[in-house]
Amino acid sequence: MVATDQLSRSFAALADPTRRAILERLAAGDAGVVELAMGSALTQPAITKHLKVLERAGLIARARDGQRRPARLQLDGLAPVDDWLRRAHAEWSHRLDRLEFHLAAQAESATHEEIPNA
Amino acid sequence: MVATDQLSRSFAALADPTRRAILERLAAGDAGVVELAMGSALTQPAITKHLKVLERAGLIARARDGQRRPARLQLDGLAPVDDWLRRAHAEWSHRLDRLEFHLAAQAESATHEEIPNA
Asked: Average of pLDDT values for B98-111?
C-alpha cells in the first residue's frame, strides 16, 4: 500500500494491533525501545520499525535523552483522523436521513395509490 | 500488512485515498462498479478490488439487484474505529493531565526549594 498523504499514513499506522498496543502502553508513560520490548514478544528492531511508522504518522514524538530516545504520545496526531471521521459521520447520517425520507415518501405514495381500490 | 482483526481491517480500509473517495461518493447515493468507475481514473476491476476491501471491513454492503450489485454505506462499520479513538482520546488526555500535574508539582517543589535562599 502506497500511503503518501498524512491521513492515509495515520490510518495505516493504526491498522496494526502491535502499533495500537504500543500507543496504549505509551498512554501509561513515555517509554524507549528497550522498555517497550520488555514484556513483549517483539525484538527491539521490530519495535524500532513500528515506532518509525508511528512517528511518520505524527502519533508519537521521540525525544533525545542521552542514549535513550523515549517515545511520547502526540494527541494532535489523531486530529486528521478525527476530522475525517466527524465529516464522514455527518455525511453518512445525512445520507441515511435522505434514504429514510425517500422510503417514507414511497410508502406514502403507495398508500395514496391504494385509495382508489379501497 | 497482515490485518486479521476487524479493527485493523477497518483502519487499513480507510488508509487509502481512493477508498475514502469511494465512501464519500457513496454518501451521495448507492452506486455500482460501473457508476463508480465513471468519472474515475480507475478501471472496473480496480474498483471491484477496493469494494471488496471496504466490504470485508464492514464499511459497505453490496445488494443484489439483478446484474447490478450497488454498494451502500454501512454507518455501523465505523463503530469499532470510533470506539477505539474515543478510548484513545480519554486515555491520552488522562496521560497529558498527569504529565501536567507532575510538571506543576515539580515547579511547585522547585519554588519551595528556592524559599530558603529568598
From this structure: 78
Q: In whole angstroms, what is the distance from residue A2 CA to residue A30 CA?
A: 30
**Nearest-by-Cβ selection for B75 from A24, A82, A92:** A92
**Over chain A, what is the mean pLDDT?**
87
Q: In chain A, which residues have their Cβ closer than 8 Å to the Cβ of B91?
A: 24, 27
pTM (predicted TM-score)? 0.81
**Segment holding A113, helix H or strand E:** helix A79-114
**Residue B59 Cα to chain centre, angstroms:** 10
With CA atoms as reference, report the closest residue to A54 among A28, A85, A21.
A21
Strands B71-73 and B60-62: antiparallel
Q: Is the pLDDT of residue B2 over 50?
A: no
* H or E element, residue B72: strand B71-73
Locate the chain B residue with the closest alpha carbon to A73.
B92
